[in-house]
Write a structure and sequence with these properties.
The protein is of the alpha/beta class and 400 residues long. It is 40% helix and 14% strand. It is globular, with a radius of gyration of 21 Å. Bound molecules: pyridoxal-5'-phosphate. InterPro entries: Aminotransferase_I/II_large, AspAT/PAT-like, NHTrfase_class1_PyrdxlP-BS, PyrdxlP-dep_Trfase, PyrdxlP-dep_Trfase_major, PyrdxlP-dep_Trfase_small.
């Protein structure tokens, strides 16, 4: 029989993938399920990006490229960091891979030794913890309170740091909480990192362009330039340009780290898709108005979902600053029994109730590091969101 390697431990395919599969299974059986589980824009990739990919193919750009990004792509990324973030990077401080996910994985595999600790403010994107485990590290989960806007406090960070701490992850705007840090909110947190020279900072900026109410985006290496030499800034085209399937992400940081990450990538996937690289150049250097328009569309949907959740008995939802998720408390429905006779003990029970009795698939906070909450991805059509919200309201009303 097959025996998995020890390093996989208890890690399975992500719980979110499993829940989505269960929802899709119900759908195939003819149930009218609305799936608000996955973090994927429902928009299409803009036409000028598709065209750039077609032109690249027609030019014969269908071969292996330089390991971690073509010269054109690295120049486009360099310009992006300068123009959007005020960050200067040399080309050998920039790397591109098959999604921000591969960049994160490369970074951890290139830097984490067994027993090294990685601080994850919770709630967090589940892949962080699993990747740390695969790399042999120890995820150190710091629960962030709703009262502090799901942001880590400097005091919390200070007390989580040990001599074994290798990385602190900051993901703003956040999947799953939607929380974002302003520059003022970031600075005291970064100053804690600055005081501990063994600690590096991983800034996951993938939701940079999905930030609401006119807020200004702040990235750690720009807020505290003294940290630049131990910060890896990660970004990608998946969320901003609706390009999840193209698999193209990038990162920038100290060249020794970037070189070590290229070693990992060279033995895993070599270069990212040549066609996706050409498409990403068009995304980063082309017109950006579509990004702003879509951000406004997401903001309208956020308002719709937050209002509906707060009008549901037992639920409470703070207004997220960015990304396309709400992270609402379901504490008020715990202890209640559903009309079908199910006692709701945990957020997972509540999500199971929503799926089985009301046909809405969402993700319990417990699998994202903080209970009792649940995540809705509102990167879905307005019609689906309205119907899903009506169902959630009915589901909650039926509990009281
Ligand atoms: N980081 C966060 C916080 C995410 O939510 C995601 C995708 O869900 C990623 C990184 C990975 O994005 P990609 O690999 O598509 O660039």
């Amino acid at each position: 029989a097959f025996r998995a390697a020890d390093r996989l431990g208890a890690i399975g395919v992500s719980e979110i993938v499993r829940l989505t599969q269960e929802a899709n299974q119900l759908k195939r059986q003819g149930q009218p399920v609305i799936v608000l589980g996955l973090g994927e824009p429902d928009f299409d990739t803009p036409a000028h990006i598709l065209e750039a990919a077609q032109q690249a193919m027609a030019r014969g750009e269908t071969h292996y490229t330089v390991l971690d990004g073509t010269a054109e792509l690295k120049a486009a990324i360099q310009h992006k960091f300068k123009h959007d973030n005020g960050l200067d990077f040399a080309l050998n401080e920039i790397t591109a891979g098959a999604g921000a996910k591969q960049i994160l994985y490369n970074a951890l595999m290139a830097s984490v030794n067994p027993g090294d600790e990685v601080i994850l403010p919770a709630p967090y994107w589940t892949s962080y913890a699993d990747m740390v485990l695969i790399a042999g590290g120890v995820p150190v989960v710091v629960p962030c309170t709703e009262a502090n806007g799901f942001r880590i406090t400097p005091e919390q960070l200070e007390s989580a740091i040990t001599p074994r701490t290798r990385w602190v992850f900051i993901n703003s705007p956040s999947n799953p909480s939607g929380a974002a840090y302003s520059a003022e909110q970031l600075r005291p947190v970064l100053e804690v990192v600055e005081r501990h020279p063994q600690v590096w900072l991983l800034a996951d900026d993938i939701y940079e362009h999905i930030l609401y109410d006119g807020r200004a985006f702040a990235t750690p290496a720009a807020v505290l330039p003294s940290l630049r030499d131990r910060t890896l800034t990660v970004n990608g085209v998946s969320k901003a340009y609706a390009m999840t399937g193209w698999r193209l992400g990038y990162g920038a940081g100290p060249k020794a780290l970037i070189a070590a990450m290229a070693v990992v990538q060279s033995q895993a996937t070599s270069c990212p898709s040549s066609i996706s690289q050409a498409a990403a150049v068009a995304a980063l250097t082309g017109p950006q108005d579509v990004v702003r328009e879509r951000c406004q569309a997401f903001q309208d949907r956020r308002d719709l979902v937050v209002a509906a959740l707060n009008a549901s008995p037992g639920l409470r939802c703070r207004v997220p600053e960015g990304a396309f998720y709400t992270f609402a408390s379901c504490e008020g429905v715990l202890g209640r029994t559903t009309p079908g006779g199910m006692l709701l003990r945990t957020d997972a029970d509540f999500c199971a109730y929503l799926l089985r009795e009301h046909h809405v698939a969402v993700v319990p906070g417990g699998v994202l590091g903080l209970a009792p909450y649940f995540r809705i991805s509102y990167a879905a059509s307005t019609a689906d969101l309205q119907e899903a919200c009506a169902r959630i309201q009915r589901a909650c009303q039926a509990l009281f």
